[in-house]
Each structure stands twice: as structure tokens, then as C-alpha cells.
Write a structure and sequence with these properties.
- The structure is a single chain.
- By secondary structure, the chain is mainly alpha-helical.
- The chain is built from three helices and two strands; from the N terminus they run H-H-H-E-E.
- It has a two-stranded antiparallel sheet.
- Strand 1 and strand 2 form a beta hairpin.
- The longest helix is centred in the middle third of the chain and has 11 residues.
- The termini are far apart.
Length: 71
């Protein structure tokens, strides 16, 4: 789930949830509990750094391919 196209039925904005615990630790370098214990800005930065950040209507100023668009 780190490359496109994603399997049919996979919601791109929730791909982290599809990772096994081992895959999650391999990608993020920590277990889910440690990740969830971090502040929101830290989790967002980690998701951006690992390619698991997905622009949604509530954070649409960021585009995975273009970076911060301002606004």
C-alpha cells in the first residue's frame, strides 16, 4: 500500500489502517501505540515523510505532489 495503484476497495486516505503491525513498524519505525501517542503535528509530519499523507477537504492546502499550496 505504499505504491499506486492501490488494490480495489482500498480507501487511499485510510491506507495506514490496512497495514499489518509488522508493516506499520517497518514503514514508520515504531508501533501503532507509539505513533498514536505523538502530537497531531508530529503524526502529520511522519505521514508526509513516509508518503502516507493524503489531502482531504479539511487539509486541502497540502498536496502530496506539490507540497504546501498556501491559502
Amino acid at each position: 500500500l505504499t505504491t499506486q495503484p492501490y488494490p480495489e476497495g482500498v480507501d487511499p486516505s485510510r491506507r495506514m489502517e490496512y497495514l499489518s503491525d509488522e508493516e506499520f513498524a517497518s514503514v514508520f519505525g515504531m508501533d501503532r501505540a507509539t505513533f498514536e501517542g505523538k502530537k497531531e503535528w508530529q503524526r502529520k509530519k511522519i505521514r508526509k515523510d513516509t508518503g502516507f499523507f493524503w489531502a482531504t477537504p479539511w487539509n486541502s492546502r497540502y498536496d502530496d505532489n506539490l507540497g504546501y499550496r498556501g491559502g
